[in-house]
Each structure stands twice: as structure tokens, then as C-alpha cells.
Amino acid sequence: MNIHLNHAEAGTAGQVVTFSLIQDDRLHILHPQQIVAFRGSSSSRQDKFMNISGIYRKKKLIKSEITGPCQFVAALPPGFTMKEVQLTENSDLLYDFRHLFFYTDGVTMHTKIQKIKNMLITRDAVKMKFSGQGKIGLLTQGQVCQQELHPTAPLYVDAGSIIAYPENAHLELTVYGNNLASQHMNYHWKMTGHGSVLFQAGRENYKLQQDVNDEGLFKRILKEVIPFGNVIIK
């Protein structure tokens, strides 16, 4: 199986992903409505109802099972990108199921119940652990970043930006910095342990865009009061 990601248009136009499957390849697509072009036998695509847990977490009824040989194109909305992950025998990351875009045959999913405090913050009772030989595709907002954890030096990561973290990592919900900083930030996970954590870097982009594009009340008043203000003040 070959996956080609078009990064050139990943900004305002959204990202385009082309999947090329050979004979005996089988891919499970959890957002089949994003498929915009398909080449191959029509019988290569079989849509099926998701199980109850999948319906609850993905808010979707249908998934597609696609077998090769065929080729198809999936279009992602502006601001979203896809991260391809090759699983290994030692994979111990826990994932948010909502980020899952596809998985291949040979991938097994295991449900991991979260602690009560984690449930309250993430609004999800379980995380998913993937094992086996295969690939998964993660749908994220912005670029996916990877940072190594340390046994004693904590890493603070925005709680809503976490994609995956090691099963045995120690997590503590907190804020950091002085009083002013801690009062004007989202909750973060204070993380220590071994292995790496994945997080998305574009979750807060819309807030920055609002701040940059917002002229502010004072500037708007000057434009209205000063003659030719709209020309002079940029």
C-alpha cells in the first residue's frame, strides 16, 4: 500500500491524500464521506455498520472496507492533516479514538479504561491501544509533534492537544507558570515516564487568527473619527 500526502495545499484548501492499494491490501476507512474519487472495481468498496463503541466515539454509523487493487483520493477539511503511523511490536501508546482516520488489516484494538479524573477532563471514558503489524492514520489539527518523556523532568502539554501517550506514563492535570499565566491557559498534562508523546500543534490556531485579524476597538474608532482614517490607518 502506498499513501501520498499532498502538503502543498494543506492550508486554506485542505489536504489531499491518495491511497494506492495492491492485491490483498485491505483498508478500513472511518470517514468514508471524505472519499472524493475512486478507481477500481466497484466491489472493492464494502460499507458496513460500525460497532456500538465506534458509533459512540466517532459519531458515525458507517465505515468502509476497501480492498486492492484500487486507488482512491480522500479530501481533508482546511486545517486538518493526516499522520501515518507504522505500528511495531513494542507499541504501547494510548490513542484518542476520535483521531483515527484509517487502519489496515492486521491491526488489533484494545480498550483501556481511564482513571476518573482523566475521564472528566478528556470527556472520554476509554483510550485505544493498537497492536499488531500494520498502519493507522491519525486525523489532526495542524502538524503532529513528537516529544520524548523523561523519568523526572516533566513535560507540560495542552490537555486538548494530546493525541497519544505511553500507557505507563504518569499524568497529572495542572497548570504552570505564575498566577497570571496559570489563570489564562488551558489545563495541561504534567507528564513523566519513558517513551514519546504525540500532540497536535494547530488546535489553537483559530484563536491566533482571531487575535491577528481583530483590529481592536480603539483602532476602529480612530478609523471612523479621523478624516480618511480608513486610508491613513492600516
Automatic annotation (TrEMBL):
It comes from the Bacteria. It comes from Paenibacillus barcinonensis. This is AIM24 family protein.
